[in-house]
Amino acid sequence: MPDWTLLATLDSRMEARIAAGLLQEYGIETLVNADDCAGLHPHFDRVHGVDLLVRPQDLDEARALLATPPLEDEG
User: Fold this and answer.
1) Spatial distance between the Cα atoms of 7 and 30, rounded to a whole number of angstroms
2) N or C: which end of the chain has fewer CB within 10 A?
3) What is the maximal distance between C-alpha atoms in the chain?
4) Which residues contact 17 (CB under 8 A, 6 or more apart)?
């Protein structure tokens, strides 16, 4: 996979998809890669983690976006 670079290894597919969704809102392509037998063994995520990958040219922007704390609701 030379077109992709590792951004983070997360604890679950759900966490990776949430992060991927945020990045995609900013136009950053993502790829979620998990060794869980196509979802048949989700408990493997806890052992191996779930990789979130981005294009190399988007790595710095993606890191900055994920490091930004969410806005608090003033309600």
Assistant:
1) 9
2) C
3) 45
4) 32
Q: What is the DSSP letter of 74?
A: -
CB count in 10 Å sphere of residue 23: 20
Contact 66, 28 (CB under 8 A): no
Q: Could you give the CA distance from residue 28 to residue 46 in angstroms, rounded to a whole number?
A: 26
- CA gap 42, 2 in Å, rounded: 26
Domain 5-67 part of CATH 3.40.5: no
- Per-residue pLDDT tens over the stretch 28-58: 999 998 875 555 555 554 556 899 999 999 9
